[in-house]
Every structure is written in structure tokens, then in C-alpha cells.
Amino acid sequence: MTRVLVIEDNEDLAFGLRNNLEIEGYDVEIAPDGDSGLESARRLEPDLVILDLMLPGKDGFRILRTIREEALLMPVLILSARGAEEDKVRGLRLGADDYVTKPFGLLELLARVEALLRRTRFGDDDRSGSAALRFGAVSIDPRSRTVRRSGETVELAPKEYDLLMTLMRARGAVVSRNDLLRRVWGYSESVVSRTVDTHIAELRRKLEDDPASPRHILTVRKAGYRLAI
User: Fold this and answer.
1) Which of 22, 27, 126, 175 would give a disulfide with 1, using CB separation of 3.0 to 4.6 Å?
2) By the 8 A CB rule, do 120 and 47 touch?
3) Model confidence pLDDT, tens digit, residues 87-113
4) How far is the C-alpha of 93 from the C-alpha of 196, rounded, in Å?
């Protein structure tokens, strides 16, 4: 079942959102403040976050920034009474996928939720209207899970592909080994493993011109890995 996390401190509004989203068939979790909202986003990794900006504890902008810095991939819809253009621009630049101002029309909100989830299911994460994602000579078609280098198909193991897409969707941000283990393999952060390093080496061998001096799949010392696009 598709899970939606609503981070909203207005109890009546949160209750109404939960009821209407559950009627549409979604599994809904409510977080009443910024700190619990961020913890829930990390723990649940929901399919969608509906995020208020004015929250007790961490405000919505801080939550959004942290979500994207930690390479959490779920779409985020900001739902806020702050309708100024600068707030909308700031939210979108921090990585929000949509911005709806209060008061809002319920049917419109539900349609936007459905559109965001549909786009995520079909892997359209480059936000450019094209299904193909690219870096260097490499192109990725998320719909068919096909990877090509200089036009030639490259065979990737399933976990190699998932690892590559996790780095791709981080949009150049550093992703730690622990986060990669958790997202790609489902391991807890307490697990110590060279699994990530081994798969990174294979990706470089298959996708880089010079695997010993990679230009795109980069190691960030004491931090993790990033993809230079």
C-alpha cells in the first residue's frame, strides 16, 4: 500500500487529510511537529511527504533541506499558508516537488498527490519531461532499467542498477555508505560491510573511461560517494 507521511501541527487539518487520503486508499502517518516529522521520514521512507512549513521544532524548510541532503528520494509536497513567491521559490529550490497554499481545494490536492506518485512510479525523476537520465556518455532509461554507454547497452546486476539510481537521484549530493546500504540493500546502519565499495568498483569498471581515475562516480573521503553529472 502506498504510504503518505503528513507533517502538520494543526490537528483538525491533519485529521481531515488523513481521512480523505485513506478514503483514496493510502496508508497515512501523521507527525505533529518538525522533529518527529523528520524522524518519521527517515524511519518510514514513505512514498510521499506532505509538509507544512510553520511547525513546532524544526520548520519545514529545515526538514526539506535535511531530507534532500540525506538523499531521501520520496517526493515532497509543501502545504502551507505561506504563499509569498519567495517562499515558493525557496521551497522548490530546496527540492520540493510541488507547493500548494492554504486554503486549498481538496480535489486539487488529491490530484496533485496522485500526479506526484504516478511520476515516481514511472521513474520520471529527471523532471525534464524525458524518461532518459544522463551523465557523461551514460544514459539510463528507468522505465526499462536499461543502461547504455556511448549507445551500447551495459549489463548491470540488479543491485548495481539500484546503487547507480540512488546516486543519480541524489543529484550530486554525497550519499554515505550507511545510507547506501540501507537504501539499496536494506541493512541497518550498524552493519559494517564492503558491499558498497565492491559494487562501486564494478560500476566504475563498466561505466567509466578510466576506472582508476573516475570522472563521474566519485569517492568523497570520510563521507561516501557522489555522482558528478
Assistant:
1) 27
2) yes
3) 998 998 888 888 999 999 999 999 989
4) 30
C-alpha to C-alpha distance for 72 and 67, rounded to whole angstroms: 5
Question: Cell 513567491 maps to which residue?
Answer: 85
Phi–psi pair at 29, nearest 5 degrees: -120, 135
Dig out the grid coordinates for 45 from the structure. 521512507
| List of residues 6+ apart from 165 with CB closer than 8 A | 140, 142
How far, in Å, CA of 164 to CA of 147, rounded? Answer: 10
* Residue 160, H or E segment: helix 158-169
8 Å CB contact between 156 and 204 = no
In sequence order, the 6+-apart residues with CB closer than 8 A to the CB of 81 are 54, 101, 102
Q: Which three cell numbers stand for residue 9?
A: 501541527
38 with 64: CB under 8 angstroms? no
Looking at residue 101, its amino acid is T
Backbone φ and ψ for 151, nearest 5 degrees, come out as 85, -10
Statement: the pTM of the whole predicted model exceeds 0.85: no
Phi, psi of 167 (to 5 degrees): -65, -40
